[in-house]
Write a structure and sequence with these properties.
By secondary structure, this protein is of the alpha/beta class. Helix content is 39%, strand content 21%. It folds into 4 domains: 3-277, Aldolase class I (TIM Barrel, Alpha-Beta Barrel); 293-323, no CATH class; 326-386, no CATH class; 390-501, Double Stranded RNA Binding Domain. The model has no long low-confidence stretch (mean pLDDT 92). The structure holds 3-methyl-2-oxobutanoic acid (KIV) and zinc ion. 3-methyl-2-oxobutanoic acid binds at residues 14, 99, 139, 141, 167, 169, 171, 202, 204, 509.
């Protein structure tokens, strides 16, 4: 029998640390449900001490997730651990993940602590967490640059104190696959009580080696990998879940372990995370990029037609491609609509939200006849945004364009419940629409990115617009979808403004 490789997904925590990727409670719940459907073992839902919002989000995830373990992050401080335990209380199965840096540079410059103080604080934190659960993970932050003997001392002591998972983070993405794998092997061999804990890895992608380092660690005895959907995460991101999982599955000749994931959910999860965070997936991204299974060259196409294995090492349908079928049309009823959403892992808590989504679906089906799964995901995001207590809402938009004339936009917004109206001219209809919105909101933000993608194939596809704005140094992404791309653009801009105006401060786990 093969060993089990535990998949610990941190999209909702480390992934959320990507500038602009912050998620609301409802968005986290949607992603958590999709991860549970994919049979991810552990979902790190957030850092509960970071803000009231993050606390509520972790608690809400703990309430709805039944099959995966829900984890919360905590620094090695009593107040963090107590807060994490409180948020995780409703979970069927919970884990507290506590961490403290062990590298000389972090101890000296960031913590201003002596190694012995770090050792004692780590032991204390694990014991404190054990008061709440017997599922405790400890991470020696920046382990990839820590001194080996000190690392061994800390790990041995925290296992004695009750840590059941030891996670070795390459926090700054500095390590190389061969040496990182050897490090894991040596830790397991040299630490006398290493058999009492699962060894895990958490690799960052600063040199593009996060997946390589993680897999090398697995070959040397790690049995948990921390990863994120689409490789989202702090700076250059974390190891991409889909790449780790599919490598282990595809190279069974090399790996002696496997995951229990339902890989057919991968593309759906990737799409959902991209839609919610506004981080597009590059077309040549492994596994989930639009071109990952596309063969352009005639020689390749010929080979694949004769025998798929000539150029393909995985089947597209095994990771969830080709399941994006035409689901519903304008004659489909409410029940069919609800059932398809449930199959996609989407459920509404309130019946009125389902009704609102259904009437949007009817409008969309009238315009575009064939409604695909990706359309439904975008439609649900839109409905949730609209029914939430966002301060700015789009009421109506009218644009005028004519060859040789200056484009104009006329917009009505509801701002804090009051309708306001404005006209503006611009270099193009989108520019005019944004100027009209700004004339009412006066946000003073800078537009950093504007991109339009089609959600599905075909000229009648909905356009999905991503905008990234910088408001007083805070980066936020906004997303909007519509069959009309000017409307999609206005929705995306308003979505970003709403996020930027949410002033709730959140702490960053590694910068305190
Ligand atoms: O990168 C890192 O070191 C982390 C820890 C909190 C595990 O994210
Ligand atoms: Zn990290």
């Amino acid at each position: 029998m093969q060993d089990k490789l535990i998949i610990f997904d941190t999209t909702l925590r480390d992934g959320e640390q990507s500038p602009g990727a912050s998620m609301t409670k409802d968005e986290k719940i949607r992603i958590a449900k999709a991860l549970e459907k994919m049979r991810v073992d552990i979902i790190e839902a957030g850092f509960p001490i970071a803000s009231q919002g993050d606390f509520e989000a972790v608690k809400a995830v703990a309430e709805v997730i039944k099959d995966s373990t829900v984890c919360g992050l905590a620094r090695a401080l009593d107040k963090d651990i107590d807060r994490a335990a409180e948020a995780l209380k409703p979970a069927n199965s919970m884990r507290i993940h506590t961490f403290l840096a062990t590298s000389p540079i972090h101890m000296r410059e960031k913590l201003r602590m002596e190694p012995d103080q770090v050792l004692q604080a780590a032991i204390h934190a694990v014991k404190r967490a054990r008061n709440y659960t017997d599922n405790v993970e400890f991470s020696p932050e920046d382990a990839g640059r820590s001194e080996f003997d000190f690392l061994c001392r800390v790990i041995e002591a925290v296992i004695d104190a009750g840590a059941t998972t030891i996670n070795i983070p390459d926090t700054v993405g500095y390590n190389l696959p061969q040496f990182f794998g050897e490090l894991i092997g040596k830790l397991i061999k040299n630490i006398p009580n290493s058999d009492k804990a699962i060894f895990s890895v958490h690799c960052h992608n600063d040199l593009g080696l996060a997946v390589g380092n993680s897999l090398s660690a697995v070959l040397n005895g790690a049995r948990q990998v921390e990863c994120t959907i689409n490789g989202l995460g702090e700076r250059a991101g974390n190891a991409a879940l889909e790449e780790v999982v599919m490598t282990v599955r595809t190279r069974r000749d090399v790996f002696t372990c496997d995951t229990e994931l339902d890989t057919t959910q991968i593309v759906n999860c990737s799409r959902l995370v991209s839609t919610i965070t506004g981080f597009p997936v590059q077309p040549n991204k492994a596994i989930v990029g639009a071109n990952a299974f596309a063969h352009e060259s005639g020689i390749h196409q010929d080979g694949v037609l004769k025998s798929r294995e000539t150029y393909e090492i995985m089947r597209a349908q095994d990771v969830g491609w080709n399941t994006n079928r035409m689901v519903l049309g304008k004659h489909s009823g409410r029940n069919a609509f609800r059932t398809r959403l449930e199959e996609l892992g989407i459920t509404f808590e309130k019946e009125e939200d389902l009704n609102a989504a259904f009437s949007r679906f009817k409008e969309l089906a009238d315009k575009k006849h064939e409604v695909f799964d990706d359309d439904l995901q975008a439609l649900v995001s839109d409905t949730i945004q609209d029914s939430s207590d966002e301060r700015i809402k789009l009421v109506s938009l009218k644009v005028g364009i004519e060859t040789g004339e200056t484009p104009k936009a006329e917009i009505t917004l509801s701002i804090d419940g009051e309708e306001q109206h404005a006209n503006a001219e611009g270099g193009g209809p989108v520019d005019a629409a944004f100027k009209a919105i700004e004339s009412m909101v006066n946000s003073g933000c800078n537009l950093q990115l504007f991109s339009v993608n089609n959600i599905t194939a075909g000229i009648d596809s909905q356009g999905e617009v991503t905008v990234r704005i910088d408001k007083d140094g805070r980066i936020v992404n906004g997303l909007g979808a519509d069959t009309d791309i000017v409307t999609a653009s206005a929705k995306a801009y308003i979505n970003a403004l709403n996020k930027a105006m949410d002033h709730s401060e959140r702490a960053h786990p590694q910068r305190l």
